Amino acid sequence: MKRNNKLMAAREKYDEAQVIELLHKQDTCRSAFGKVIEHYSEQLYWHIRRMVIDHDDANDVLQNTFIKAWTNIDNFRGDAKLSTWLYKIAINESITFINKKKALNNISIDDDDSFLVNNLEADKYFDGDEAQIKLQKAIATLPDKQRLVFNMRYYEEMKYEDMSEILGTSVGALKASYHHALKKIETFFENND
Amino acid sequence: MKKEESKILDKLGKNPGFKVPENYFNDFNAKLLESLPEVKITEEVKPTMWVRVRPFIYMAAMFAGVWLMMNIFSIGKSSASSEQRAAQISAGVAVEKNADELINYGSVSDYDIMTYEDSVYMEMEEQKNEK
Question: Which residues from B are below 8 Å from A when comparing CB atoms?
Answer without folding.
Answer: 1, 4-6, 8-9, 11-12, 14-21, 25, 28-29, 32-33, 36-37, 39-44
